[in-house]
Amino acid sequence: MAGDIEGQLICLLKSRRFSLQLDETTLQDSDALLMVYVMFFNAKELIEEMLFARRIRTDTKGATMFEEIRGYFEQSGIPRENIIACATDGAASMVGRYRGFISYLKAVILSVFTIHCVVHREHLISKKLGLRLNHSLSLVIQVVNFIKSHALQNRLFHQLCEENDEDFDTLLLHTEVRRLSKGNCLQRFVALWDSIDFGEKLIDAKADIFYLADIFQKLNLLNKALRGNDSDLISSGSFFC
After folding, report:
1. What are the C-alpha distances in Å from 9 to residues 6, 17, 88, 93?
2. Which residue among 83, 116, 149 closes a domain?
3. How far apart are CA 95 and CA 165, in angstroms?
4. What are phi and psi of 108, to 5 degrees?
5. CA gap 85, 120 in Å, rounded
6. Under 8 Å CB-to-CB from 18, ≥6 apart: which residues?
7. pLDDT of 178-197, one tens digit each?
8. Which of the listed residues 27, 77, 156, 225 has the most CB atoms within 10 Å of its CB?
9. Residue 184 to residue 37: CA distance in whole angstroms
10. Residue 140 sits in the same domain as residue 47
11. What is the reported pLDDT for 177?
């Protein structure tokens, strides 16, 4: 059934102009996963579909990803000239001036329109917090890692949360791979603040930590609001105000 659906999608792409969206992420086993989505009009209806997802077991350079997509298009018989636009994240392998995926794409499709994904821009901006806020964030991550990396500490913390009648009884780890995890980690940390006691450094950073939790909560809401089918800048404009 999946093959039939893919075949129908390929038939549509052979006769229509469409835009691409690329996303590359890292799986738990350290393999890279390249996901390619397409958007096009069919009978005046805007269609969004995943074209394919492939593991990349070697490097994730722009040339490697370009060859993956070029090979798929040639095998499927989809004309490259039908690509009118492409959205990517801001990684050097995607937007590098000389060796990024976009540079290889523009070499074969001169008129292609390229854009840096709004969600990824928001994620990059959130990394530039300044020394003070970065220090406060690192304190949170250190405390969470200390509790979660020791079984005894984790059990004692679980028991303490139950004694304090907390809504939650565990902290959430943070990972750079999942964009929402930093906000979720901070939200849970703040929710369990009364059960966490790590001295004056943490107390001194309390205002910054709560401020960061509010910031990342807003960013997570924006992140989620921009997801889903039929989402565009016009319909999502209110989320940026």
Report:
1. 5, 13, 21, 28
2. 116
3. 49
4. -105, -20
5. 17
6. 38, 39, 40, 82, 83, 84
7. 555 677 778 777 877 777 76
8. 225
9. 27
10. no
11. 45
Whose tokens are 């006691």? That residue is 197
Do 129 and 30 sit in the same domain of this protein?
no
Phi-psi group of 98: left, alpha or beta (phi > 0 → left; psi -120 to 50 → alpha; rest → beta): alpha
3-state secondary structure the chain: CHHHHHHHHHHHHHCCCEEEEEEEEECCCCCEEEEEEEEEEECCEEEEEEEEEEEECCCCCHHHHHHHHHHHHHHHCCCHHHEEEEEECCCHHHHCCCCCHHHHHHHHCCCCEEEECHHHHHHHHCCCCCHHHHHHHHHHHHHHHHHHCCHHHHHHHHHHHHHCCCCCCCCCCCCCCCCCHHHHHHHHHHHCHHHCCCHHHHHHCHHHHHHHHHHHHHHHHHHHHCCCCCCCCCCCHHHHC
Read off φ and ψ for residue 82, nearest 5 degrees: -75, -10
Q: Which amino acid is at 44?
A: K
Which of left, alpha, beta for 17 (phi over 0: left; psi -120 to 50: alpha)? beta
CATH number for the domain harbouring residue 91: 3.30.420.40
